[in-house]
């Protein structure tokens, strides 16, 4: 964890101890607070219990639906958006990205949804909160300031290998006429390289497609047919290859596994966990 995020994390815990709801934010995206609302939850500040404690924002983890709804009320109150308009993703580790419109408002939270097998949401509609879910995979939160377009994208190892970040960038350019060189992306908290051991077959898929990853130390062989993968840096590499510029890409550096008492981690808890959420909305 770098110094900036260590200080930032201590501030989050301090805020929680003073009865504020902790929210992780991007430095780059925070420069546009007059235009958008964004943030990622922690596992602190909610009402869920046991291994779901306490800010579980997912209905798919066996939680009491009333507690999940209350968590959404708390989180939306902390960020300042209308929870009843929130659009949920339906993540399956693929690469489909849904172009959301006003007709999608509330789908997944208060309305039945037709958004299926969808790992990314993108929109140019105002006051339409987009929400994606995490517990080790990488949140990619995008903003195109030139044409006022946002997206939230879920990038696990399968999505990263398939270049879902680049697919999102292409949609910004082709469907919304955005300049990739102005596109901003926050790479949010996820499992770090030291905690993320992968098998040879997964590593070989990355090395075949991205041979430079070994040289750049994004993938490291650790013996016994095991490797370690730096998902956050791999996502940045995908974005750079897609045409984003380095100064517009922010890596959080926070590890969900190292910080499992504050962030949900699937690997650390062997699947006994809730879900964090990343949200972005145009004002």
Q: Quick check: average pLDDT?
A: 94
Structural category: alpha+beta
Biggest beta sheet attributes:
6 strands, mixed
Rg, nearest Å: 18 Å
Tell me what the structure shows.
The chain is globular, with a radius of gyration of 18 Å. A six-stranded mixed sheet has the order 4-5-8-7-9-13. Strands 1-2-14-6-3 form a five-stranded mixed sheet. It is 28% helix and 22% strand. The chain has helices at residues 3-17, 27-30, 65-79, 157-161, 164-176, 200-209, 212-215, 231-242; strands at residues 23-24, 36-41, 87-88, 97-99, 120-123, 130-134, 138-144, 149-155, 184-187, 197-199, 219-223, 226-229, 249-251, 276-282. It has 283 residues and is an alpha+beta fold.
How would you sum up this structure in a few lines?
The chain is α+β, with helices and mostly antiparallel strands. It has 8 helices and 14 strands.
Notable characteristics:
22% strand; 283 residues; 8 helices; 5-stranded mixed beta sheet; 28% helix; alpha+beta; globular; 6-stranded mixed beta sheet
Topology (SSEs and partners):
Elements: H1 3-17, E1 23-24, H2 27-30, E2 36-41, H3 65-79, E3 87-88, E4 97-99, E5 120-123, E6 130-134, E7 138-144, E8 149-155, H4 157-161, H5 164-176, E9 184-187, E10 197-199, H6 200-209, H7 212-215, E11 219-223, E12 226-229, H8 231-242, E13 249-251, E14 276-282
Helix pairs in contact: 5-8
């Amino acid at each position: 964890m770098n110094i900036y995020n260590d200080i930032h994390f201590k501030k989050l815990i301090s805020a929680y101890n003073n009865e504020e709801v902790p929210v992780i934010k991007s430095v780059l995206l925070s420069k546009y607070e007059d235009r958008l609302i964004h943030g990622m939850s922690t596992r602190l500040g909610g009402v869920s219990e046991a291994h779901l404690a306490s800010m579980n924002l997912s209905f798919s983890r066996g939680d009491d639906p009333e507690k999940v709804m209350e968590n959404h009320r708390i989180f939306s109150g902390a960020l300042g958006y209308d929870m009843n308009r929130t659009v949920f993703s339906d993540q399956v580790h693929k690469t489909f990205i849904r172009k959301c419109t006003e007709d999608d408002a509330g789908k997944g939270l208060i309305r039945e949804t037709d958004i299926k097998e969808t790992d990314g949401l993108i929109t140019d509609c105002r006051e339409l909160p987009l929400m994606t879910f995490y517990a080790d995979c990488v949140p990619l939160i995008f903003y195109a300031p030139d044409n006022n377009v946002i997206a939230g994208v879920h990038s696990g190892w399968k999505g990263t290998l398939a270049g879902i970040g680049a697919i999102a960038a292409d949609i910004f350019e082709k469907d919304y006429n955005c300049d990739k060189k102005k596109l901003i992306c926050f790479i949010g908290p996820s499992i770090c390289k030291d905690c993320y051991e992968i098998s040879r077959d997964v590593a070989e898929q990355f090395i075949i497609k991205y041979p430079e990853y070994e040289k750049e130390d994004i993938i490291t062989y650790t013996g016994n047919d095991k490797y370690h993968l730096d998902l956050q840096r791999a996502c940045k590499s995908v974005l750079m290859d897609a045409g984003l510029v380095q100064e517009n890409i922010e890596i959080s550096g926070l590890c969900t596994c190292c910080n499992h008492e504050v962030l949900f981690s699937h690997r650390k808890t062997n699947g006994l966990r809730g879900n964090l959420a990343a949200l972005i909305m145009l004002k």
